[in-house]
Amino acid sequence: MRILIVEDEFEQRQLISALLKNNTEYDVEIASSAEKALNALNKHQFEIILSDWKLPGMNGLDLLQKVKEHYPNTSFILMTAYGSISHAVSSMRAGADDYLAKPFEKDQLLFTLSKVANARMLSEENQSLQNQLTARENLKSIIGKSSAMQKLFSQIDRLASTDVTVLIHGESGTGKELVAHTLFQKSERNNNVYLAVNCSAIPETLAESELFGAEKGSYTGADQLKIGKIEAANNGTLFLDEIAELPLSIQAKLLRFLQEGKIMRVGGHQEITVNVRVIAASHQSLNNLVQQGLFREDLYYRLNVITLTVPPLRQRLDDLPDLINFFIKKFSEKHRLEKISFSKDVYETLYEYHWPGNIRELANLVERLTVMHSGETISKSDLPNEFSIKEEGQIIELPEKGIHWEEYERSILEQSLTRCHGNKSKAAKLLGLNYKAFLYRLDKYNIDSI
Ligand SMILES: Nc1ncnc2c1ncn2[C@@H]1O[C@H](COP(=O)(O)OP(=O)(O)OP(=O)(O)O)[C@@H](O)[C@H]1O
């Protein structure tokens, strides 16, 4: 266990290190001020900090607050002068794990350290059991009897024990984040941190400091050290959702981190070595973006070592009944309402629908219906407008929020094939296209057959 002793008085430092010297459990490092301690924390991970209250510059309580903010997993023991009980009280209130009144005997020091070390071990064990339970719960909640999902699950099983970078591709709402989390939970890193970052939600100007961190004073407003997401995920797993949205300038830095395992904070002068497994996801084709010069080719190849494809809901309609039952149960429990049920024609409508928003759209629909029609049997007229089947020949109305044309065209082509059980000439007729024009479009979207 790594221990950092923060003590400004030379003799005291020597004394404490001497007391711990013969104890092989502890690997001791020393800092003579809180500022130096923070520097050391930047470079290495410590399990326990043993700090004096009275220090030149920042005092022990200030250091404790910084540690709680930036290194919440590090335990903290404060040493106070005998009689300054108020210091001990305020340090415990600020989150210290224990305190030692000076002067103390060797036994007292060892006892306090082992108490804190044991508490850490218990909480780690607890966390690990908790993770296993959540893992089991979550695994149960990934629905997927369809052959497309079964194939995906066996790929996940094969990849889970490796540290390989994985790229998850799939339309919006198909469950990419759930797949990433399952990979994490099945991996050997499942006792460590899992951090998810949505790259499309970070403003371009902040992307670098969000991911790589920033030294204090490195830019206007950086009034304290900022630990980036990559560093915070050290020894764990980082999920980079919507990776295509990452600005090109940051893509170069990400590539360097993936290749060398090193990062540099904004305004920093020293590289920090990190050990992070990366899982990335995108609903857009990174290959297409590379062709358009919007995504770095080298980063694409680095990320694309293994690609998992999560199929859209319309290609795994076999899962629809299980998913519906799962969400009916989930939302009736969440809102403490009676379960709804669906009439036969509602099922038929849901089977024919093209599900542009995939599982998320289905979950939202079931939640809305549960809240509005608790305990009832849902009929077709209870479904929102987008589910009403258009009259023959009617022009489909463009929704207010617009559509993604290519996704729409692909979906129509796939639906026509599904409806005609894979018969291409019938499917072409259904869309009012000649056979050649239909084949041309299948080829354009790389659709083989259904
Ligand atoms: N197979 C599944 N079984 C049960 N729930 C699922 C399944 N797949 C997805 N969900 C649920 O659907 C919702 C959307 O899933 P998720 O956020 O993982 O999709 P996504 O592909 O990451 O979406 P986006 O591209 O928009 O980030 C979540 O609430 C998730 O729990």
From TrEMBL:
Keyword match Transcription: yes
Pfam families listed in its UniProt record: AAA_lid_14 (PF25601), HTH_8 (PF02954), Response_reg (PF00072), Sigma54_activat (PF00158)
SMART domains referenced in this protein's UniProt entry, alphabetically: AAA, REC
Domain Response regulatory: 2-117
Single Gene Ontology MF annotation: sequence-specific DNA binding
Modified residues (4-aspartylphosphate): 52
Domain Sigma-54 factor interaction, chain residue ranges per copy: 142-371
Entry-linked InterPro entries: AAA+_ATPase, AAA_lid_NorR, CheY-like_superfamily, Homeodomain-like_sf, HTH_Fis, P-loop_NTPase, Sig_transdc_resp-reg_receiver, Sigma_54_int
Gene Ontology biological process terms, A to Z: phosphorelay signal transduction system; regulation of DNA-templated transcription
Keywords: ATP-binding, DNA-binding, Nucleotide-binding, Phosphoprotein, Transcription, Transcription regulation
The keyword Metal-binding is assigned to this record: no
Protein name from the UniProt record: Sigma-54 dependent transcriptional regulator
Organism: Pleionea litopenaei
